[in-house]
Specification:
Layout: E1 12-16, H1 18-21, H2 26-35, H3 40-56, E2 69-73
Antiparallel strand pairs: 1-2
Length: 75
């Protein structure tokens, strides 16, 4: 688990299950949010798609851990 106090420059919070963090780095998840153009639902879809592709490429496929995410944009 990665946690730190919020800073004034923070623009979003991502809460995700361990299945996301097992296959995507913090930077990769942040890039997914950036690709969404300010749409938190689209960001969740992009995170889901990215994590699902990573899980599909793993040796023990078709197993996939839970890849749930919640994106909160800070205004």
């Amino acid at each position: 688990m990665f946690a730190r106090p919020l800073k004034t420059k923070d623009r979003f919070i991502v809460v995700a299950s361990d299945g996301v963090w097992q296959v995507l780095s913090n930077d990769e998840v942040a890039a997914c949010v950036g690709q969404a153009g300010g749409d938190p639902a689209a960001a969740c879809d992009i995170i889901y798609d990215s994590a699902a592709k990573r899980w599909a490429g793993k040796e023990d496929a078709p197993y996939r851990d839970d890849i749930t995410s919640l994106v909160l944009l800070l205004q």
